[in-house]
Amino acid sequence: MPKVRLALAQTNPLVGDIEANLDGAFAAVRAAEKSGAELVLFGEMALSGYPIEDLAARESFLISAEQALEDFAKRLESEGLGHIAVVIGHPALAKKQVARSWAIAQNCASVIRGGKVIGKYAKHHLPNYSVFDEYRNFVPGQDLFTFELQGLNFSTLICEDIWQNGGPVAQLKSSNTDIVLVLNGSPFEVDKDDKRLSLVQELAKSNQVAVAYVNLVGGQDDLVFDGDSILVDSSGKLVGRSKQFVEDLKLYDIASKQEIYAVAESAMTKPNDLEQIWGALVLGLRDYVEKNNFPSVILGLSGGIDSAVCASLATDAIGAKRVFGVAMPSKYSSEHSIADAADSAARIGLSFSTQSIESFVTAFETELQLSGLALENLQARMRAVILMGLSNSAGHLVLTTGNKSELAVGYSTIYGDSVGGFAPIKDIEKTLVWKLAKWRNEFATLNGQTPPIPENSISKPPSAELRPDQLDQDSLPEYELLDGILDAYVEQNLGRAQIVALGFDAAVVNRIIDLVDRAEWKRRQGAIGPKITGTAFGRDRRLPITKNSKQSSN
Amino acid sequence: MPKVRLALAQTNPLVGDIEANLDGAFAAVRAAEKSGAELVLFGEMALSGYPIEDLAARESFLISAEQALEDFAKRLESEGLGHIAVVIGHPALAKKQVARSWAIAQNCASVIRGGKVIGKYAKHHLPNYSVFDEYRNFVPGQDLFTFELQGLNFSTLICEDIWQNGGPVAQLKSSNTDIVLVLNGSPFEVDKDDKRLSLVQELAKSNQVAVAYVNLVGGQDDLVFDGDSILVDSSGKLVGRSKQFVEDLKLYDIASKQEIYAVAESAMTKPNDLEQIWGALVLGLRDYVEKNNFPSVILGLSGGIDSAVCASLATDAIGAKRVFGVAMPSKYSSEHSIADAADSAARIGLSFSTQSIESFVTAFETELQLSGLALENLQARMRAVILMGLSNSAGHLVLTTGNKSELAVGYSTIYGDSVGGFAPIKDIEKTLVWKLAKWRNEFATLNGQTPPIPENSISKPPSAELRPDQLDQDSLPEYELLDGILDAYVEQNLGRAQIVALGFDAAVVNRIIDLVDRAEWKRRQGAIGPKITGTAFGRDRRLPITKNSKQSSN
Q: Which residues form the CN hydrolase domain (chains A, B) (predicted)?
């Protein structure tokens, strides 16, 4: 009976770093071969990293990627790995133009064996929604590519191809495919893992094929690829899954499409949503730091929950030694804020310092005669100047600690607390920040560690402390209510009347929608941060700054 | 012989402001009717403004737009204009989903007569390159819509439809179309007017049809629609053109597709490129201010050419009374800078004030022990705090005065001189800034006015004045050379080797490319500003922040 040992190589490429990505791929093929594999499957664009965005429009980059692929094939052969079949994703120059496309590239999967590329598949369904611009960047391919290995037929598909009807999926039956190899660059979203598994199971059952689904892993700007590669046999049974949020190499023995065995056992179920979200945020932050070569991060510690959570995330991502926290009290800062900030630093063990902003505020306030909102913003901007000064001196990446609810309604000072290169919790609404903080502390307790987030930061009413006795709820509805309206307006994209019909008070709805729309210009200038929801602010939600808000949200 | 008087209604809609846009359209129909017109043609999405971006994904907005269209038809009828045929662009809910599309909207042109919509055309070719995301936002239409008026056949097409082969254009001949009505939302780009005219002439000749081409006018975020609507007869002869950069209503008598006469004469040629660019920048800035209801603008006046040009643009856009300039000298500011800033203000007549940053800089410098680049950036950030404080107090829109060459190489301080809601010259490379300044001064002289830009600001070597005797050319190559390399890398999207092959020094090319790539995160947080080139920074050029720059630019 034919038997193929298949390795699912879940790697973490860096966009554009073809050399290092292929070195990593080579090491994975070598390791797979040592474990007896005859076929190694990588993720979408594992050669180039993903998404490459408008690098797809740079002809010289496409040519160098194709050259690197040829060289990789030769290297495998010359180093004794030519007998392994390797399937890897990469960009390529499109051979011909297609009507209604302005792209010059294709998103490909090549099959390598015996020192050369023996076949190439180009992605057919090009996602052009949410964060994706693939119709902008790629020319669609048309035909399935099928190859035979020890009596079994393998066909390649790429990511969106299995989420849509029609196209090459419809050619699976006539091609007598036994096992579909799906190369993916599928970003993490809460609950998406369940969708992927049921989609793959459905694909397997309806086409009577086994499905090997490899996803990338790693953070890339605002996206986090979570890995979680899976293998499903032709009955739709889940045979095994790779780890989430780390590189992984997992082996399967394929006797036939119905008989597939994992060489080693793996966890078949996933952690709860909060643990997964935390994992995604940590990976997104870590990879932004490491892939951009920052030595360290710095953030303001206010004693509030947002900065305490960001400090904990940063520590989980890169270790406390590389995390710098600065308390920057003003005359409106309460005693407990300063104490909570210090407590947060002490629990985590990060480098902590204090720098009062009072003298700076006074200097500007007096000379410019500022008051009211201008004075509140001034305080936030003094803190920004301090953080950026320290960043410019030491090379720290500045983290900005705003949450999604604040970003939505513009409850932040532009060029103040919004400054920074990365926003770890920008896609986390306030009510979820609380849940994550509680989960992280419980997780620490369960593991016999100090809970990293001060209990007081979790339990006290949130305040920006920019004027005496200020509370967030002086300006905003309770966060439970606010997040409910934001979910309707931002996530569900409902209009005013529809939101009111859900049972929310019309005046509150109108006020929140106006705030959201008016903050568009601020969000446009905001830092990137990891997307974990269906509609993150950024390229996931593209709205005009200039508009009549009242009518466009009706 | 049949005869139709056609009005080309070139209007300036505000995105989302359906009520005001339709009031404006109604007034245009009324005026056209008074001038004897029987047919009025508006631009693409004149009902909703354009582009609506992801408002196209808000179902309630689409429904309200269609309702407004029905109401508009009834209003025309009830106010005695039902006999006029009106063709207007608007968004609509797509009636059915289409494969490989995630959109729910269509980009339509409806024909109204007798109080109702008598026909609807949906745009077929959906631009999804450059700044456009129409494949993201719209479902393509398929069939040409043709209607008859006094013995002549009119067909509608929308913008990109005539820039691509195939689709409804191919149906023109079989439909016996006499006159094509093309609704456009075509943003200004240098030299694009010539492309449009020759394209329209080619369309006319190859299909033996007359073409009425109406473009929108107005600024919308980073786009400037320049109007310049045209009418070409079936021989390809230009019969007339509407004004550029202003609303216009132009009338034509159509006896047949070969015999069309402009009711009034119009300028058939265009001003030179510099005058057009200046016009585009003025309109883009004016509409951003007015459509977002800012009372005034504020900017830092350094005595340098960039801020002097921005002050002049702002004055041309909204008048000197609404322009506030602030000189913010430091100990490194030269005497001539302060004098040139004051001269710039005096020539223009704007509100001028001076605020030294010295005491603020000293306070931070001492307490934070900053030096080198951190200290240079600190100065720029002190100026930002001042401008934002004044903006928060008085409601001014802050203008940031960086040019495209600086933005490209990151020669600016983030949260410093980059702060602001609008960047009037962000798409103008430095060498073009000089040309524009000289043109504007000559234009003033020719018209007997004071040249608005100090000669000294134009002629002196550029300096950021952040340390003693600093000049831009200490850090950067000469701007002529820099702009040449930037053109190759940014506009032409060439790789390193290709750029060196053009004759540039390899070391300089490498340095400039590294600077451009490393500044990506700063540009991502930058203000929007009017696009006038083929590749403006912003949504026109979408590149990852996290990447291996060396390899991705090879």
A: 4-256
